[in-house]
Amino acid sequence: MGQSSSKNAVTTGLKHCTLWKTDRSPACRAVMMALDAMNLSITEVDVNMDKGEHRSPELAVFNPLQTLPIFKDRELVICDSHAINTYLASRYCDSGRFLPKDPGGRALTEQVMHYDSGVLYPRYRAAAYPIMYENCRFVMPQNVCEIECAYRDLEGMLVGRTWVGGSWPTLADITVAATVSTLSVLVPIDKLRYPRLSGWLYRMSEEIYYITANKKGLGEFARRIDLGVYDESDFKCPRSSIKRRGCGPEKHS
Asked: Which CATH architecture has domain 3-96+230-252?
């Protein structure tokens, strides 16, 4: 697979679509990776959650839950990253590469995505939010234990497999990579205890869409966790997906 898989593909511009997001959110980065993997370009609006912009009246109309990402395609509004990604793959990606068209393959992909929404992401929020919003300075022992349990689950899922979603990277891998790479900032993955998981994450980190859509926000998250600060220069909106991808991998480190 590797970086060359989407390098020469034709980009599809969807001027009628908008994504409101913040790069440090793994849910937002999952959508950004899916966009880049499928070579879809839409308008992206960066939202400063530290200033409460996600609670603005404009966005509250779209999403009363006041969470990100928010995706709008003409009059359709979707506010969950898993639903956004399956919609994008079903509506705008005919290949079936990232969301298999056969019922069995799609079910296996969605099974892993449900594991992310039901297990991985809640554990990310439980561990990270006290540090980001409640002046806590470390991951609580119970949260460490729960994240380690998730690592063990994923290690088991990868027995005899190269990718968590099947024989090649799918939306399942993209979704889990966004969350697990963020969890690894909080609780580093022990390569000796979880060799399959660490190997899988390394393979994902070599995909071009991981570099263009995940690395920058992951770095922002790590700085916020380590230093409790964010960089105002990160908020430049709106911009398109194709412009973000055109910045080059070196600017997403």
From this structure: 3-Layer(aba) Sandwich (3.40)
